[in-house]
Design goal:
alpha/beta, about 45% helix, single chain
């Protein structure tokens, strides 16, 4: 089991690295060359600035049993074909059951932006969001490790 992070703008890298260390798991931060990472525990993978290059790099590497952390619905949809552990930075899981709705919301928002509408960005991140994320990632890892040992 490895943890992959879509690290372009991910606010929970520190929490993810902390949990990876706790369980002795490998963690891979994937981002484009616009981001500079200094993290001794993690493997850093940088790709070019092209559209979705980090996403395609992650999909090419991830395998069954790995965990992906991303806020990108498109990447999450692709990753669900390879692993069942895809987690949003707010701690909720992407699943085959919620993916159609999420992709439709993404499509509608993009359509509105093309028409010139402004969409609100995310609210300032709270400490509670980080705690929920940490707790849910910890729970997923424990569950996976228990399944692997049985």
């Amino acid at each position: 089991m490895k943890i992959y992070i879509d690290a372009d703008g991910c606010p929970v890298v520190r929490e993810s690295v902390e949990i990876a260390k706790k369980y002795g798991l490998e963690i891979v931060l994937v981002s484009n060359i616009s981001h500079e990472w200094k993290e001794n525990y993690a493997t850093i993978v940088q790709v070019g600035k092209g559209r979705d290059m980090a996403d395609f790099e992650i999909v090419s590497r991830i395998s069954q049993g790995d965990i992906l952390i991303t806020q990108d619905y498109g990447l999450a949809a692709m990753a669900l074909g390879k692993t069942k552990y895809v987690l949003h930075q707010d701690g909720w899981r992407y699943t085959n059951d919620n993916m159609d709705k999420l992709l439709m919301m993404r499509h509608v928002s993009a359509k509105e932006r093309r028409k010139g509408a402004r969409t609100k960005g995310p609210k300032k991140r709270t400490k509670m969001q980080n705690e929920v994320f940490y707790s849910n990632l910890d729970e997923i890892i424990k569950k996976h490790l228990n399944e692997a040992n049985n």
